Amino acid sequence: MKTSNHEVIFTIVNSGFAEEAMRVAREQGVRGGTILNARGVVKEDAAAFFGITLHADKEILMMVVEKDIRDKVLNALYKEMGLGKKSQGIVFSLPVSDVAGLAMPVEPKPEA
Fold first, then answer.
1. CB 89 within 8 A of CB 1
2. Phi, psi angles (nearest 5°) of residue 89
3. What b/e string do you get for 41-70 counting C-beta neighbours within 10 Å, with b at 16 or more?
4. pLDDT band at 108 (very low <50, low <70, confident <90, very high)
5. Contact, 55 vs 83, CB < 8 A?
């Protein structure tokens, strides 16, 4: 199904922090996500430049969200999970052109 109303948000955090990121996202209206295990790679001089300690084990939280909540989700995630925190997270979104399999919320029927 073609869509122009959805984006996918990626949150990449140190291992063990994806559930916390999902909690933050749910508080902003996100209904669910998918967690992938990953390993980060970076040149050692880049870590020194940014002044961060690198942890190779990562988790990636992917969430398909409606565009109208994207900005508040991105801001909340970065505030709670950003590079300055133990999770050392980064967060970004990409547009979604097609979507299938999403459970859309059911609007309550007005009582007669």
1. no
2. -85, 155
3. eeeeeeeeeeeeeeeeebbbbebbbbeebb
4. low
5. no
33 burial via Cβ count (<10 Å: 0-12, 13-18, 19+): buried
The model's pLDDT over 24-41, given as tens digits with 9 standing for 90+, comes to: 999 999 999 999 999 887
53 pLDDT more than 70: no
CA distances from 87 to 18, 28, 64, 90, 94 (A): 9, 19, 21, 9, 22
Token pair, residue 6, equals 């959805």
pTM over 0.90: no
Q: How far apart are CA 95 and CA 80, in angstroms?
A: 23
Report DSSP state, residue 86: T
Angle CA(82)–CA(41)–CA(88) in degrees, nearest 5?
15
